[in-house]
Amino acid sequence: MPMKKTYFPERQHDHEACILAGMEHAEAECESRNVRFTENRRSVLELLLADHRPLGVYEIMEQFDWKGRRPAPSQIYRALEFLESIGLVHRIESSNAYLACNRPGRHRCTLFLVCELCKKAAEVEAGQMQDVITDLAKHSGFELHSQVIEARGLCPECTHAPTPDEAGH
Amino acid sequence: MPMKKTYFPERQHDHEACILAGMEHAEAECESRNVRFTENRRSVLELLLADHRPLGVYEIMEQFDWKGRRPAPSQIYRALEFLESIGLVHRIESSNAYLACNRPGRHRCTLFLVCELCKKAAEVEAGQMQDVITDLAKHSGFELHSQVIEARGLCPECTHAPTPDEAGH
DNA sequence: TTGATAATACTATAGTATAACATATTGATT
DNA sequence: AATCAATATGTTATACTATAGTATTATCAA
What we know:
Dna Ligase, domain 1, DNA-binding
């Protein structure tokens, strides 16, 4: 049995460093793929990295300070589509929201844990599940392209002190 | 290795019987739970049973013949909420759509296979996955409430003859 | 028949996502 | 440097999905 490990951010983790690392990884990733890491894309990713909650597109829009004006939805969607296509962002289907990927190495199969109270989400490598799904698909003659695996419940912090207070962070 | 079994409806299955069985099961389920199986709820379930594709709410609305007029979205949502609450209907998160449950016995853990071409969906019992998810959640101190497991790809029929024709059904 | 509960009808509005087209930026090629 | 193709952006409009809120009606037990 593996050590207990919370995939949720520690309460006093170095958040600045965490954002910086995400941006540097993105930088490198774009470099190596030879794609452009433009201002829009950069800003959207920064906003997502700054928050450990998946953000909805309109939430991103509101936080987006764009020389006074606000961007249109499609501009955000385009940036997200790009970021998702190279694995820097994940879409959480059960929340219609987007989460910055905080695990540099690509996962074979990912389970997202979504806290229903504080709304934070964590990604967990779940390679075992890939085999099960692949088998089930194969046995029913289904050609598997992709999968969505999301769990909803309470994160470690909210489990212990599920007060309304925590819902705000 | 289990026998190959497609969880998708056979091309020439007895669809009338399949709808009827679904309605009878619903009837019995409501009876035993002592809840009302009203006209609205009945109609929505019938429409879902008649189609092996998950239907969006507005698609249901359009098909809903309601003495000439059309019902409002909230009426459909209410019926769906009810049907879902007693396990007669499932929501497919990655399609924002609803599927009639065609397996009478409650599943411990369900994987939905969604065909990206013909849009049909199948539910597959996936008990093995429950243990994996439960374990992963436990190890990260997460209190699990529910989960979403959906696979996207091509159903057996569309894998073999993925012509545009099939997309219509 | 009355009163509590559950369900419905209706109107309005909030939230999520894409289409379509014009403009601008980038970077390779001449 | 000038041109061109490819990529990305700006903008407007619209489609799709979901919920809130309130008034009304049906159901059933006391």
